[in-house]
Amino acid sequence: MAFVTLDTKKLKSNFDYLDSLFKENDIEWSIVSKMLCGNKEFLTELLKFDFNQICDSRVSNLKVIKSINPKIETIYIKPPAKRSLSSVVKYADISVNTEFETIKLLSEEAKKQKKTHKIIIMIELGELREGVLGEDFIDFYESVFRLDNIQVIGIGANLSCLYGVLPNHDKLIQLSLYEQLIEAKFDKQIPYVSGGSSVTIPLIFQNLLPKGINHFRVGETLFLGTDVYNNTKLEKMNSDVFRLYSEIIELIEKRTVPMGEFGTNLEGDSYEIDKSSIGETSYRAIVDLGLLDVDVNHLELIDTNLKVSGASSDMIVIDLHDNKDNYKVGDLIEFEMDYMGILRILNSRYIEKRVKPLDSKKGWVL
After folding, report:
1. Angle between helical axes of 137-145 and 100-112 (0-180°, round to 10)
2. pLDDT tens readout for residues 196-208
3. What DSSP assignment string belongs to 217-240?
4. Looking at domain 242-354, which CATH architecture does it have?
5. What is the pLDDT of residue 280?
6. For domain 7-233, which CATH number applies: 3.20.20.10, 2.60.120.330, 3.40.50.1820, 3.10.330.20?
7. Residue 66 catalytic?
8. What gap in Å lies between CA 67 and CA 74, rounded to an integer?
9. Are 55 and 33 in contact (CB under 8 A)?
10. What is the average pLDDT across 92-117?
11. Is the Cα dihedral 225, 228, 231, 236 positive or negative?
């Protein structure tokens, strides 16, 4: 069975780096845990760290988090569906919202559960995902302030996730000004201006983050050490918190060019042969991992001498060329993954999840 590993020491190092960065800049932050896909073992390791707030986009994941630590503050980070409001109020201390009718129903549900439900209202800043339009937000807040059992604790915005619209000083100043207008008009305190995410972190280094932005929601940079703004890696962070291992289940020297009449493969792609390679051979390994688990475009082989030749639903074929490192059946092939690769692998119930640290002498065994 293929398996994915979580290096808790490297994750803790990343956490400590970000925690120090945010404290130095008077910023509160919440960990976005959706990448862990509700895995209880991984979440247990994460919740050992010293932080107070965690976000997720699945109520079932928040339920797992609350079962591990009932006292931690949880945020549901997408506008709630009406059919899930009871669970949202039960397992999320805070939710982000953009629809008044939904907030009205949250108010009614919070009354039933004898709770005060906190909300962050999201504002549209150009990404065209969730967010109340700027011309509507004053009336929107006014209506929400009239509701019982609802406490507005923040104004927020999302950028980069849908179209890749990057945050900049002007956009975040605009968000801060919205918060100031709300406080002045309604004589209300809005504690959070939640305009920060992984993609916003580089603005801190460049001294371009407006002082009003005081709350960040961070997942990718914590887990991958990425500079999302510039699509690079941060030097002081670990990019190998996660690793994927898959066993070689066949290794045979074969032709490099397939033979026969060609149609389309299972993804509907047509294969064009390289006639200059007819007659050539190489060692080809099959590993026990496939498209059901991950898109190979989100994987990178650690051994740069190897190359992915193709993939089907349950198997990936790897070209070992002359197999100079003498791989054999039963050996493990190691992969690095990007954000979407990790997200899909951790969501696959067919992939084992491990948290024990790597033994540098013996390596991982099945």
Report:
1. 20
2. 999 999 999 999 9
3. EESHHHHH-EETTTTEE-TTS-S-
4. Beta Barrel (2.40)
5. 79
6. 3.20.20.10
7. no
8. 12
9. yes
10. 98
11. negative
Domain 7-233 and domain 242-354 have a common topology: no
Output the six-digit token pair for 177. 């000004």
- Give 9's DSSP letter: H
CA-wise closest residue to 94 among 219, 217, 187:
217
Q: State the pLDDT at residue 361.
A: 43
Q: How far apart are CA 215 and CA 202, in angstroms?
A: 15
The catalytically annotated residue of 12, 34, 63, 66 is 34
Separation CA 192–CA 179 (nearest Å): 9
Q: What 8-state DSSP symbol labels residue 358?
A: P
Tokens at residue 280, please? 């050539």
CB 246 within 8 A of CB 327: no
* Tokens 């005081």, located at residue: 214
**β-bridge partners, 287:** 248, 316
Cα(107)–Cα(278) distance, integer angstroms: 69
Q: Which residue ranges make up each domain of the chain?
A: 7-233, 242-354
